[in-house]
């Protein structure tokens, strides 16, 4: 597809960082570039409000969070720091199928003093025995074909006891232009410069995300646009009849 082809036609292309056998140094450079872009685009800030609000409703108990396809761990660690500043106790686990990403994330957690666990694993693999209060995923869905994107949503719903929070790109001309400009300006990573624009071409539109959510059983999810050219989907599991809401006891910051 030409760079300025119809933005409503999704064009999913293999991204270099997803290829097996990618040079470890190139992979690490690309993950560092992605971390820099995540800071500029305030990815952790996009995810934060629903997680903060959920944490504040809990009564002096730790919450548990699973971050699927956590990559280099920068977003996961960023959320841990926000939770700590807000006085919300949490156990956070990041999962990724890339050993290189896990190694970088573990090292980064140590450098920043973040009590986050990073484990090797496939985000799409079923595990009926595990559950977390909140399951999140950020900037992963655009890597997937439609069937796997639906599976991701289903897995997140299956694993979440209370909340699903999903953040990804929205396919658009503006998003493509920003991806080209930002990857040229903020990094020398050849992988990031190729994958950035491809990511936007492979992203879903908001109507496509909405249809997937309905199919995945998340029909009552809230989906909103976020700058820059992203969306945030948040879904709360309905409480059972007679179940009381647990409210926060202390003041939140």
Could you explain how this protein is built, in words?
By secondary structure, the chain is an alpha/beta fold. The protein has a domain at 43-170 and 204-236: 3-Layer(aba) Sandwich (Rossmann fold), CATH 3.40.50. The protein has 8 helices and 7 strands; from the N terminus they run H-H-E-H-E-H-E-E-H-E-H-H-H-E-E. Strand 1 (63-68), helix 3 (74-85) and strand 2 (90-96) form a beta-alpha-beta unit. Helix 2 packs across helix 3 (74-85) and helix 6 packs antiparallel against helix 7 (190-201). The radius of gyration is 18 Å and the shape is globular.
Question: How do you describe this structure in short?
Answer:
The chain is an alpha/beta fold. Helix content is 42%, strand content 19%.
List the helices and strands and how they pair.
Blueprint: H1 24-40, H2 43-56, E1 63-68, H3 74-85, E2 90-96, H4 99-112, E3 116-120, E4 132-138, H5 146-159, E5 160-169, H6 173-186, H7 190-201, H8 206-215, E6 222-226, E7 230-236
Parallel strand pairs: 1-2, 1-4, 2-3, 4-5
Antiparallel strand pairs: 5-7, 6-7
Helix pairs in contact: 2-3, 6-7
Please name the defining characteristics of this protein.
alpha/beta, Rossmann fold, seven-stranded mixed β-sheet, disordered N terminus, disordered C terminus
Give the end-to-end Cα distance, rounded to a whole number of Å. 47 Å
From the 3D coordinates, which CATH architecture of one domain would you assign? 3-Layer(aba) Sandwich
Mean pLDDT across the residues is 90
The CATH class of one domain is Alpha Beta
> What is the CATH H-level superfamily of one domain?
Vaccinia Virus protein VP39
What is the tally of beta strands? 7
Q: What count of helical segments does DSSP give?
A: 8
Please write the string of helix (H) and strand (E) elements.
HHEHEHEEHEHHHEE
Strand order within the widest sheet? 3-2-1-4-5-7-6
Class from helix and strand fractions: alpha/beta
Strand content: 15-25%
Task: Indicate the low-confidence ranges by residue numbers.
Answer: 1-6, 241-253
Shape summary = globular
Describe the sheet with the most strands: 7 strands, mixed
CATH topology descriptor of one domain: Rossmann fold
């Amino acid at each position: 597809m030409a760079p300025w082809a119809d933005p409503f036609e999704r064009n999913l292309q293999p991204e270099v960082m997803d290829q097996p056998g990618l040079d470890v140094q190139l992979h690490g450079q690309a993950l560092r570039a992605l971390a820099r872009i995540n800071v500029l685009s305030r990815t952790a800030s996009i995810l934060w409000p629903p997680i903060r609000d959920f944490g504040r409703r809990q009564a002096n108990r730790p919450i548990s969070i699973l971050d699927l396809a956590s990559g280099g761990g920068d977003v996961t660690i960023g959320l841990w720091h926000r939770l700590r500043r807000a006085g919300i106790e949490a156990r956070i686990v990041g999962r990724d199928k890339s050993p290189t990403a896990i190694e970088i994330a573990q090292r980064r957690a140590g450098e920043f003093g973040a009590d986050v666990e990073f484990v090797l694993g496939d985000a799409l693999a079923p595990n009926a025995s595990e559950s977390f209060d909140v399951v999140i995923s950020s900037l992963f869905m655009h890597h997937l074909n439609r069937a796997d994107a639906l599976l991701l949503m289903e897995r997140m719903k299956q694993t979440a006891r209370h909340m699903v929070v999903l953040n990804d790109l929205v396919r658009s001309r503006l998003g493509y232009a920003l991806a080209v400009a930002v990857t040229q300006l903020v990094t020398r990573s050849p992988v990031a410069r190729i994958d950035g624009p491809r990511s936007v071409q492979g992203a879903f539109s908001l109507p496509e995300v909405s249809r997937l959510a309905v199919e995945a059983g998340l029909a009552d999810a809230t989906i909103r646009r976020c700058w820059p050219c992203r969306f945030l989907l948040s879904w709360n599991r309905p409480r059972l009849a007679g179940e009381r809401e647990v409210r926060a006891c202390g003041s939140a910051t």
